[in-house]
Design goal:
Elements lengths: L3 E6 L3 H14 L1 H7 E3 L3 E2 L2 H8 L7 E7 L8 H12 L4 E5 L3 E2 L1
Helix pairs in contact: 1-2
């Protein structure tokens, strides 16, 4: 069972990568083992359209995927860390690219 959080940010790829790298160093068990990141990429046309449906201007997108099934209960913790690191107004998190978190 795959569970992915689709993350859209209004930062460029380099800035997003730096923030993700910092988070992976600070939260090794959670954000490199239990959950894993895809590489940030420029937001696709469809991704930008999905984000705009939520009133968000996406520049970059990436996934945060559940890697250890027994750690699903820590999803809110992972989301909170992302929102804190990027700034709540700078990130849109969608569960399976459909439900806003």
């Amino acid at each position: 069972m795959a569970i992915d959080l689709f993350c859209y940010v209004n930062k460029n790829k380099q800035d997003a990568s730096e923030i993700i790298s910092r988070l992976q160093r600070c939260y090794v068990d959670l954000l490199t083992v239990s959950y894993v990141f895809s590489h940030p990429a420029e937001a696709s046309t469809i991704g930008k359209e999905i984000a705009s449906d939520y009133g968000f201007n996406a520049i970059t997108q990436f996934l945060l995927s559940l890697n250890v099934r027994s750690e699903i209960a820590r999803m809110r913790e992972a989301e909170s860390i992302l929102k804190s690191a990027f700034g709540e107004e700078n990130i849109l998190i969608l569960w399976e690219n459909e439900l806003k978190h």
